Amino acid sequence: MAIRAKQIFVNLPVQDLKKSVDFFTKVGFEFDANFTDESATCMIIGENIYAMLLVEERFQSFISKKISNAVDTTEVIVALSVDSREQVDVIVQAALDAGAKPYNEPQDHGFMYGWSFQDLDDHLWEVSYMDLSAFPSE
């Protein structure tokens, strides 16, 4: 039997919850007030896709290992697929305008276009568009 999850919650540690909420609001995301308090918030990414932004102390309460230092190490890249090349540019530019750091220059592979940034806590976000009709055939 294949596993098919109904939802995904990516949990990310943040240093300053208010700054993170302000940042991601400027990028264009919304938050679920039902899952928000002074130490955590639920960012709505898409239908059944969420990021839990947890202050580091709260995040640490769920794990026994050290929190990765995202400045020096990368444990995950949050990759989002969107509906158009233009939407890739709008999202990443909004993140950069809100204080994100650029990570890679835009990558154009013909059938796939992507661009990435580092958020305020140095987590990597990659936004991409794929046109399968332009996928190279053999």
Salient structural properties:
4-stranded mixed sheet, alpha/beta
Question: How does this structure look, described?
Answer:
The chain is of the alpha/beta class and 138 residues long. Helix content is 21%, strand content 41%. It is built from 3 helices and 8 strands. The protein has helices at 17-27, 56-60, 85-97; strands at 8-14, 30-37, 40-46, 49-55, 77-81, 101-108, 112-118, 124-130. The strands form 2 sheets. Strands 1-4-3-2 form a 4-stranded mixed sheet. A 4-stranded mixed sheet has the order 5-8-7-6, covered by helices on one side. A hairpin with a 3-residue loop joins β6 (101-108) and β7 (112-118). α1 runs antiparallel to α3. The longest helix is centred in the middle third of the chain and has 13 residues, at 85-97. The chain is globular. The two termini are 32 Å apart.
